[in-house]
Amino acid sequence: MKKRYLIPTLVLAGCVLAAGCGSKNEPSNVNKADMYYDGFEGNYSRSVVMPSADMAMEAGYKENGGNYQGKSQSVQSQDTVSRKVIKTATLDVQTRTFDDFVNSLMKKIEEYDCYMQDADVSGNNLYQNSERRATYVIRVPEDKINALMDSIGELGTVTNSKYNETDVTLDYVDIESRIKTLTTEQETLLGLLEKAAYLEDIIRLEERLSEVNFQLESYKSRQRTYDNKIAYSTLTVYVREVERIATIKEEPKTLGQRIITGFKDNMLNIWDGIQAFIVWFLSYIVNIIFVCGLGALAVFFIIKKSKRVKAAEAAKIADEKTDETEMGNNQ
Known about the structure:
- The protein is an alpha+beta fold.
- The chain has 9 helices and 7 strands, in the order αββααβαββαβααβαα.
- It folds into 2 domains: 21-48, no CATH class; 51-263, no CATH class.
- The radius of gyration is 46 Å and the shape is elongated.
């Protein structure tokens, strides 16, 4: 019986001794914060624990008295933050007084505290299909865009208008949350960097700090872009100089009305074409006279030369006949 229980007793004693030795080699929970586990050698070594985003968020949780400042907080904050809306609009305007319209538009831009982001003007003359055109991209304070659109409508004839609002509240709140998280991690890294005494720790901390700084600047740049687009709406005005202002007509219902409307439009187009031809002809009358004169002179010389050639051929034929007659008489 003694031999039967001797072997299990020795095995149990060996396990107890092994567990005791392992507990001596393993560092206590107090020191684990400053240690890392070497998976290759199976031992704990002295190092600095690299704080991840989750650790930084957990630190923010403790510093804010239990109010979690992570990504899920952005979802909860949607009800408390104001809506972030980007407004854009376009206007197509026709005018017969292009210069007056542009001058009035510039005054409106100054009156409504706007600024010109881009301007493109083309065309210098008022001929058929060559009227002046312009595109103006205006940045308007978001609370004044509707008033400015109504005001521009009084300066010319608006043929088309578009208005759009894009809600970016979710994305904006998420960016704010990420900035707070990265800022917390940045502060934690800076604190650890001040306490680091070994070159290996300093290098690892600076590498992670560089990554955090890059991400932080990227999110801040996106936030500044949103702030600018939200504070100043974008209004694009397309201006076209025309001879006849387009009018909005009711759609003809009967066949007779459609024929009359089409006939009137066709006659107006013909009249516009005649006027354009008269303007073109009178504008280039000197060129036309000069070209016609050259053409007439060229025709004159061609005809004169042709007559000379014909006369020479006729004289040659006559001489040949005379020679033949003389030869016949001699025979």
